[in-house]
Amino acid sequence: MKKVVITGIGMITAVGNGKDATWASIKAAKPGIGRITKFDASRCTCQVAAEVKGFEEYAIGGGLLDRREARHMAEFTKYAVAAAVEAWKDAGFADMRKEGSEGFRPDMDRVGTMLGVGIGGIEVTGESFKTLFDRGPDRLSPLAIPELISNEGAGNIAIAIGAKGPAQVVTTACASSSDALGFALDMIRAGRADVMIAGGAEATIIEFCVGGFMKEKALATRFNDAPEKSCRPFNADRDGFVMGEGSAILILESEDHARARGAKVYAELAGYGATCDSYHITAPDPSGDGAVKAIEIALRDAGVADRTTVDYINAHGTSTHLNDSMETKAFKRVFGEDQAKKINISSTKPFHGHCLGATGAIEAAITAMSIREGWVPPTLNYENPDPELDLNYTPNQGVARDIRVAVSTSLGFGGHNGVLVFKKA
């Protein structure tokens, strides 16, 4: 079976525009959560979110996004295209739109796109319905439909880069972009592509989405006056997740393709597993059965027979009572209680928030960089340990550690479980 490696990373997050800025904030333990500024949140019980900041100046000013084309994109697509172009450059590929551009020029018929998106252009949907109700159908934008549909994220990435292989979108709630990366892995293994542009994007910080999750009682509400403290995975006083937005795109290549062109490698994407709880439309199965099976499938897919080689888990870690307790139980079941306590576990959501369909890709990118640097990110705000959650959650300060194998878990509404396994390359 072909080995698949990560050769490029692009990121747009609440803690930084670009891979390097995001990683620097994580190393400095600098969270990206603040008071909501994208709309008047005074009617909401949750008034905090992890918003992307200074994006257009960075993306358009930095040549990652064309100003005219951006006018006809939903926000999630803008994030996706900017992250994809950054990742493409980071991988050492040429700008295929420019003759004489420096970098390797792959066979673009063998380059595919796979994007995970949970909701898509929801702000375009809202604005369009308002126009329809207030002014009638004749006043709708002719681009309303192309902007709001989720597949336009993948389509615009392919157009921006010139990728002519399959361009597809995966929607499995908060597991979307982990599943997208898993499907991209299989595309290369199956010989359907040499290179895959894969990841996720989301932009849902609008009153409708915050209000909807608020009414589900899923969001944090106790720390509106101290936003940076609001996301508290594995704490006894955790009270809900904090919404985030952004994108991460990873360039995946067969190892042979990457080595032949002398590419740098972050890590090997070695395994993927997916299951469904078949339990509840929003709540995870408290037994952890679905998560356990997905992790075990991913480890088996990666050829990890010795589970003591797993040094790091980037947990879904949403800061909700149900998720954090279930995940802890699942980790103990997979690895055994004694071995589970030897693994560094962290949730990076206190940095970038819960980015729904983009969260798996953002956490996959962080995991790959952690392996390459030999450093485990911390779980911020770990101040009041839950006595029932007794694993090593890497509290508050990151630690240096040689990471041989890492696992990243993403668990979504509908019972979707997507798990990725990475190896040091």
Question: Which helices and strands, and how do they pair?
Answer:
Blueprint: E1 4-13, E2 16-17, H1 19-27, E3 34-35, E4 48-49, H2 55-61, H3 67-70, H4 75-90, E5 111-116, H5 122-135, H6 144-148, H7 151-161, E6 167-170, H8 176-189, E7 195-202, H9 207-215, E8 246-254, H10 255-260, E9 267-276, H11 289-301, E10 310-314, H12 321-335, H13 337-340, E11 344-346, H14 349-352, H15 359-373, E12 375-376, E13 399-400, E14 405-412, E15 416-423
Parallel strand pairs: 5-6, 5-7, 10-11, 10-14
Antiparallel strand pairs: 1-2, 1-8, 1-9, 3-4, 7-8, 9-15, 12-13, 14-15
**In whole angstroms, how far apart are the ends?**
16 Å
**Helical segment tally?**
15
Please identify the structural class as seen in this structure: alpha/beta
The H-and-E topology, N to C, reads as: EEHEEHHHEHHHEHEHEHEHEHHEHHEEEE
Average residue pLDDT: 97
CATH class of the largest domain: Alpha Beta
Oligomer: single chain
Strand content: 15-25%
Query: Per CATH, what is the topology of the largest domain?
Result: Peroxisomal Thiolase, Chain A, domain 1
